[in-house]
Design brief:
Blueprint (H helix, E strand, L loop, with lengths): L1 H21 L27 E2 L39 H4 L1 H7 L10 E2 L5 E2 L5 E3 L2 E3 L10 E2 L18 E2 L23 H4 L8
Antiparallel strand pairs: 1-7, 2-6, 3-4, 4-5
Length: 201
């Protein structure tokens, strides 16, 4: 029944669009987000994104998009990329010991933890934990293996943290974040809520 209603709605939209096009009220340049000729790419290019040019330490911190969202990079990354396991300019300011002194956001405790479960793969390809075969890895409760240094699985900061482009979105975004607490806007509490709602032992 639901499929029939959906199909009827789609067919109605196609019919309305066809009538509008046949009557000459819709131009092909008005279709899509680019507002350009659909048969040619001549002269068509996306809007050039302009990234914040403020130097590190001079930029205003941006609000997180949601609880524990990776913060956006509010400053210029020119000269800081690419990041490698042996060359990471971000650590000079964002390691917790240095961050407070330079006014930077400190790397959270979750980045000093190895979350990989203590499992092995046998010759058949089965995942083994505590001598038992695990059919679904999501059935393994996340256990924290805390480390004194940055966990190397997180060395590539720009894999999650990105600069914010000053560009007008083509589609309006009405999303408004709803935080669990006021501190969640500025600080990660991932380790506190990691296994929330998980009853697996």
């Amino acid at each position: 029944m639901k499929i029939n209603k959906t199909l009827t709605s789609l067919l109605s939209l196609v019919a309305i669009a066809s009538l509008a096009y046949a009557s000459g009220t819709v131009s092909e340049e008005s279709l899509g987000l680019r507002k350009t000729n659909l048969y040619s790419e001549n002269g068509t290019s996306p809007e050039q994104a302009k990234f914040d040019a403020a130097a590190p330490g001079a930029a205003k911190t941006l609000q997180r998009a949601y609880d524990n969202a990776p913060p956006l990079i509010p400053h210029s990354v020119e000269g800081l990329l690419p990041i490698t396991a042996k060359n990471n300019a971000c650590l000079g300011c964002h390691m917790p010991a240095a961050a407070k002194g330079v006014g930077a956001t400190p790397i959270p405790p979750s980045h000093f933890v190895d979350f990989r479960p203590a499992t092995k793969v046998d010759k058949k390809g089965d995942i083994i934990k505590d001598g038992k075969v695990i059919k679904n890895t999501s059935d393994v409760k996340v256990v924290e293996h805390k480390q004194k240094t940055l966990y190397q699985g997180r060395y590539n900061c720009s894999q999650c943290h990105v600069p914010q482009a000053n560009i007008k979105p083509l589609v309006k975004n009405n999303f408004k974040p709803d935080y669990q607490s006021a501190s969640a806007k500025k600080k990660s509490n991932l380790l506190d809520v990691l296994n929330a709602g998980v009853n697996i032992k």
